[in-house]
Amino acid sequence: MCKVLIVEDEANIRRFVATNLSVRGLTVAEAGDAEEGLRLMRQSKPEVLILDIRLPGMSGWDLLNEMKADASLSSIPVIVMTASVTNVRFGESGYANVVRWLVKPVSVVELLQAVKSACNRTEH
Questions:
Q1: For 29-50, how does the pLDDT look when each residue is reduced to its tens digit (9 = 90+)?
Q2: Cβ atoms 71, 101 nearer than 8 A
Q3: How far apart are CA 103 and CA 48, in angstroms?
Q4: For 66-94, how does the pLDDT look when each residue is reduced to its tens digit (9 = 90+)?
Q5: pTM over cut 0.90
Q6: Residue spans of alpha helices (H) in the chain
């Protein structure tokens, strides 16, 4: 059973993701901002993180930097889910743990494929 943490400030998007994962048997935790997400990661060590980049206060980039600096968090696979198309391309972000970039709005199929792939990385 894969444990997934969703860090997303938009409640409707967070619920959409959480519902679609939990009905498929995944254990899901939710955070509305990066600070709460970091606290939950340190407490429960999720196997996959779904992260929005544009968050109030501490950004998703800041959270990725915190994870990179913390050996206990640095290997958690991250799926970045963002509405902003950035100049950073997958594989060139400088964050080895970012395994997938999803641009909102995300389809259920695309979301499930990304999570399944990320969960499989942690099972090996």
A1: 999 999 999 999 999 999 999 9
A2: no
A3: 18
A4: 999 999 999 999 999 988 765 455 455 57
A5: yes
A6: 11-22, 34-44, 60-69, 108-122
The domains of the chain, with CATH numbers, are 3-122 (3.40.50.2300)
Sign of CA dihedral 92, 121, 8, 109: positive
Residue 50 CA, distance from chain mean position: 2
Long-range pairs of 35-43 with CB within 8 A, sequence gap ≥ 24: 36/7, 37/5, 37/7, 37/63, 38/63, 38/66, 40/5, 41/5, 41/67, 41/73, 41/76, 42/70, 42/72, 42/73
For residue 28, give the amino acid letter.
V
